[in-house]
Amino acid sequence: MSEGERLTELAKRRGFYFPSSSAYGGAAGFWTYGPQGAALKSNIEDAWRDRYVVKEGHQEISAPDVMPEPVFEASGHLDGFDDMIVECGECGATHRADHLVEDNTDIEEAESLPNEEVMDLIAEHGIECPSCHTSLADQPVDNFNLMFETNIGPGSSSPGYLRPETAQGIFVEFPQLSEYARNQLPFGVAQIGKAYRNEISPRKSLVRVREFTQAELEHFVDPEEDEPPLAEVEDVVLPLYAAAEQQTDDGGQRELTVREAVDEDIVESEWVAYYLGVSKEWYERIGVDMDRFRYRQHLAGERAHYASDCWDAESEVDGDWIEITGFAYRGDYDLSKHAKHSGEDYTVFKQYDEPITVDRATVDPDMSYLGPEFGGSAGAVADALEALAERNPDAFDDDEVTVEVDGKSHTVPVDKTNFSVDEVTENGEHIRPHVVEPSFGVGRIIYTVLAHSYETDEVDGEERTYLGLPPEQAPTTVGVFPLMDKDGMDDLATDIADDLRAAGLSVTYDDSGAIGRRYRRQDEVGTPYCVTVDYESLEDDSEAQRASDSASSAEPRSANRSSGQSPREDGDEPRAGTVTVRERDTTEQKRLPIDGLAETLEQLSTGDRTFDDL
C-alpha cells in the first residue's frame, strides 16, 4: 500500500476526510471533513490566523464566494485561467495533458511547456488514455477554463462565477479597505475561505480538488519606500530550488539563509524573502517535516499572469512534490486592472514630509468648441487631452494637438484646450500600492501534515500506528478513560472530563473496550495525552472526601447553610487524588494529581512544559 493509499484509508476510517455524496455516486474533487478532520482544519487555520493576521498586525475579512462576471474580466481569469486538456478519440475521456506527460516521463513541470510541445511529447512517448489505453498521439491539446459559471438572480442576464481564489474579494474592495487602514501603507488584508476550480481530472484526495479552502494574505506596500523587517528572519535557512538549478542537468536544492538568498539575488523581492522565512518557521510549528520540504521557484512559462516572481512551498508525499503555498510579488497588476475596468480610484494618498512646489501642466478644454466638433466623443476627447497634458506637456507646443480615442485620431487647436503650465504647491501624491501575496492551500497542508506525522512502531509486541501531530494541531488534546465502567470510576472520569472541557481543552471520553485498544484509537487520531481513572484514583479521592466531610461537620451549621453546597460540589474547590497520564509518542505514563491537571495539560500542549519535567 502506498503512502497516499494508507493515509486515505486512515482518514476515512478515523473521520479525517472522505468522498462527499457517496450515497448518490459522489462527484470527483469534493471531500467532506469528518469530526477529526474538521477539528484539525480549524486548528491549522487558527495557527495561520495567529501568525499572519495577529502577529503581523493585519486585517481579516470574509468576502462572498460568488462574484459578478466583470470582476473576472478585469482580473484576467476569464481569458487566462486555463489548464491543458486532451480528449481520448476512442472513449471520450478527458485528461490533464501536462499531468499525463509528468506521469509518463522524467519531466517534472510540464505545465510550463507550450501546448504544441506537450502534444509532441504525448506522441513521442506513446502515452495512452488511462481509461481505455488507446493511444493519444495526434489528439489536440487545448486550453480549458477552470471557472465555475453561475447566474446571479433569475434568468441569465447577470452571469457570475464561483471565485477561483479568495484574493479577488480583497482586491475589489481595496478602496474601502484602505480607508479602514487610514490610507497608511503598508497594510495587509487576510482571508480564509472557499475557492472553486473545475479541475479536469481531480486526483490524490485533497491534493487536486474542485472545492478547497485558501488562506491568503494580500500585503499592500509602497514599492519606493516600504521594506520588510528582514532582520527578524535573516538567519532562517531556506531550502531553495531556483529556476536556474531546475534547468541544468546537475542542478539541485541549495540551503541558504534569507539574507544570503537576497544578497545573491536568488530571491528577487525582499518582501517575498521575508515571507519565505516567516513561513518556514510556521510550517515547522504545525508539523511539516523539513526533510521533505523545499521552496521551488516558478519557471517563466508557468508563472501566473500577474506575478513578476513566484516561489512555491512544496512538500514531498508518496514520492511526489506537491505545492502547498504560493508566494508571489503581484506588483500593481490587480489594482490597475480593477481601476481601469471599474472607473474607481484604487490608489492611496501619500503625504510628503514637506510641501513641494512643482510646475504642473493643465488643460481646461473649451466644451463649446469640442461639443459641436466631436459630438458624443467630446467628453472622451477632453479626458484624453488631460491625460496627455500630464504625460507629455511638450505635445502642446504646436498650434494643434492630436489625441486618440477608441482607435480614432482627433485634432484640436491648442488655443481651444486652454493649456497652461502653473506653479503649484503639493502636499503629497496618489500612488498605487504593490502587492505581496502568500497564498496557502489549507487542504494540501492538512494532507501534508497527516502524511508527515504518520508513524508506526511496536508496543507490547504489537505494531502501533500513531499520528505524531504537534499538540497545538491535534484534533483532540486529551482522552479521558475510566479503567472500568464501574465502582464510580466512570463518574470520576466524567467529572474530570467536564472540568477539562470547562478549562478550554478539547476532550474525548471513551469507556468502550480494553484500555489498550482505547489508547490505540487515540494514537491513530493524534491525541497527545490520555488520562486514566483507576482504583487508586478512587481511593485517593475517597480519603480526601472523608477528610473534607469530617472538617465540614466540625464547622457551625450556619457556615454550611450559607454556602448552599458542600465543598465536594463546589467546582472551585481543589480535588484530591491522582490519575495516570500517558504521553502519545513515547507511551510513557506518569501519576499526576487531579488538582491542577487542566493547567498541566495546557502547559504541555503549548510547550511551556515537557513530559519529562513532570
Give the domain tally: 4
Strand-residue fraction? 25-35%
Mean pLDDT: 92
* Count of alpha/pi helices: 20
Helical proportion? 25-40%
The CATH superfamily of the largest domain is identified as Bira Bifunctional Protein, Domain 2
Described by the principal axes of the CA atoms, the overall outline is globular
CATH hierarchy, class of the largest domain: Alpha Beta
Structural category: alpha+beta
Name the assembly state: single chain
* Poorly predicted runs: 556-571
Task: Give structural attributes.
614 residues; alpha+beta; BirA Bifunctional Protein, domain 2; Herpes Virus-1; 4 domains; nine-stranded mixed sheet; five-stranded mixed sheet; 28 strands
Give a structural overview:
By secondary structure, the chain is of the alpha+beta class. It folds into four domains: 3-81 and 146-332, BirA Bifunctional Protein, domain 2 (2-Layer Sandwich); 82-145, Herpes Virus-1 (2-Layer Sandwich); 354-431, no CATH class; 465-549 and 573-613, Rossmann fold (3-Layer(aba) Sandwich). Helices cover 33% and strands 28% of the residues. The chain contains 20 helices and 28 strands. The strands form eight sheets. The protein has a nine-stranded mixed beta sheet. Strands 25-24-26-27-28 form a five-stranded mixed beta sheet, sandwiched between helices. Strands 4-9-8 form a three-stranded antiparallel beta sheet. Strand 18 and strand 19 (408-413) form a beta hairpin. Helix 3 (69-75) packs across helix 12. The radius of gyration is 32 Å and the shape is globular. The model is unreliable at 556-571 (pLDDT under 50). GO terms for molecular function: ATP binding; glycine-tRNA ligase activity. Residues 567-593 have a biased composition (Basic and acidic residues). Residues 537-614 are annotated as: Disordered. It is an enzyme of class 6 (ligase). Its EC number is 6.1.1.14.
